[in-house]
Structure prediction request, 399 residues.
Amino acid sequence: LNDTGQLLTSFEPGAPAGAHGIPLCVPELRGREGDYLQECLETNMVSSVGPFVERFERQLAERTQRAYGVATCSGTAALHVALQIAGVRLDDEVLVSALSFIAPANAIRYVGARPVFMDAEPRFWQMDSGKTIEFLDKECIWRRGGLYNKSSGRRVGAILPVHILGHPVDLDPIIAAAQKYSIPLIEDAAEGLGSLYNGRPLGGLGDAGCLSFNGNKIITTGGGGMLVTENAAWAKEAKYLTTQAKDDPLEYIHNNVGYNYRLTNIQAALGCAQMEGLDQYVEAKRANAQAYKVCLTEVEGITTMPEAPWAFSAFWLYTVLVDENQYGESSRSLLKRLGAHGVQARPLWEPLHRSQAHAGSQNYRVEIADQIHARALSLPSSVGLTEAQRQRVVDLIRR
Ligand SMILES: *Cc1c(COP(=O)(O)O)cnc(C)c1O
Prediction:
């Protein structure tokens, strides 16, 4: 439990927050979560049937300005099903961000396809739309009604940009390229609920958007995810696949291999309560980001977290870049020093083109992702982070 009695759900080895420490990112559960859970108990609807599931699906569809939401047991499950309904097949390739949590790359492998890793751009650290388009235009060729990678001979089955840390990818050029080549675009907006790109909500920009409600995300259901789409056939297919592909629920006839990817009514009840707090959480994260920026902007060797002119970022995890030469200490040394004082910071993910899990995968001119990875450090970013806690973090960084 932290100072305010919240359960810490996001401990990372190497940087334990400790009893009086400051955790990286913990949920805020002070709304109607308890009331709604009680309602599940009283109505005996604790499993996958119940009114909260549909209500939560409607809330997320509305929030992302899409017609349909299909709840899943995790964000990773949503990604898996999204790739399947988008028609990604065995031995296809999917273009995906190199600088990302591993889940989207794993989901690509679940459908038998292969990731091709795209670099990050240096300004906002997101998937580089210029390099992605260059790959499509120069490294691929149109034949047999599809776009094929010249070097591997494989079909490009989808493009999967990941909005990292709550900031949007510059998506319009990628959307245009995807349309030009008739390639489905699936957004991984797991870290971007509540963020906007040119005024439009993340998750609602591609052919399908995937969200996560894991414990450290902007809102949480304990664990859970959602696929949002404008496509009625896709939504129907997603519901079918995530509920064991039942063709006759009475006689248990299944004509396809489905999955048990359902979200329970209990989880959805938490989600409905969390959605009532979303605007307030985003506001708190943005205020936190602004305060960090003001305090750290003058520190030599520290680059504060950017926000593009076309972005409204929810600043999911406030992240800085540490220049070892200018700052006099590496990001990893600072990570350990913060940890020794009970402050839980975290590096970004190992760039996926270096991951053993995806060894042998192609990447296209990835270089910036490594540079960002070497220098980046995410700082405590809970909605409930107090001014005093933030000041402690800032003081340690300022020395
Ligand atoms: C958290 C996350 C996921 C996976 O979500 P789960 O609900 O944990 O399965 C996918 N992509 C990104 C970018 C994430 O941060």
Q: What stands out?
A: Residues 155 and 362 are 14 Å apart (CA to CA). The first strand starts at residue 68 and ends at 72. The chain is about 35% helix and 15% strand.
